[in-house]
Amino acid sequence: MAEKTTNTIKEKPAKVEKTEKVEKPAKVEKPKKESKPKKIIAKLNPFQQNIKNMKMFGRWTTQDVIVSDPGLKAYMNLDPILVPTSLGRFTAKQFWKSKRPIIERLMIRMFVAGHRGKKHVRTSGHMTGKKINAYNVIIRTFEILEEKTKGNPVQAVVDAIEAASPREGITTIEYGGVRYPRSVDLSPQKRIDLALRWLTQGAYDKMVKSKGKKRIEQTLAEQILATINYDQQASFAYSKKYDLERQAKAAR
After folding, report:
1. Separation CA 241–CA 223 (nearest Å)
2. What is the pLDDT of residues 5-49, one digit of tens each?
3. Alpha helices by DSSP H, 90-235
4. Helix 131-149 vs helix 153-164: angle between axes, to the nearest 10 degrees?
5. I want to staple 219 with a disulfide (CB 3.0 to 4.6 A). Which of 73, 144, 169, 203 is the partner?
6. Domains in the chain and their CATH numbers?
């Protein structure tokens, strides 16, 4: 039997008539508002929010401390700080020690109170390399100063530095193989360095000579008070300043 073949006719899809596009109404432009620049508010560090009211060691303020010597004012850092330490931020940069708190510089000088020039005459004892011991000494010294002066002990330290800082020094010049001393003006940073050095050396010498009768905080407070009163016999720092300025005056 012959196979029946069926031819399938494919129906074409009906054409869809295109609809005419309806024109949309034109948008009415709104007047632009003047854009104001945004205010950028810096986020405060939580440790710096109450820095203005911060007291040194939580007890003594530095805001009412006055530096009367205009030459030393820029080199005494009296910014509010709880613990006077810079954590070594300025050790690698020359002349940046002036950015350290002035009380921290006093503490650092306590480490090497036994030095005389390049020689270590006597050991500085248990404070060598231990900052916490120097902190405790300064706190006890401030308590003694507060009791005796009835005022801010930070102001007493600043006044002692101003009184003990020399204005003139001596340098050596050479002419024809002969050396001559000549007086020179000292920089503010050098003046503060010498004052801090003499204050700590004088306190340490008095402590050693007392043979255990006086502690370092007692002798340091005595040296600070004697320097404020311009006592040449009791103050080691003021006597050294007087001798240096006398030699500089003779070498003018």
Report:
1. 14
2. 555 555 666 665 656 666 666 666 777 667 777 776 666 555 455
3. 102-111, 131-149, 153-164, 188-209, 216-228
4. 100
5. 203
6. 73-82+94-250 (1.10.455.10)
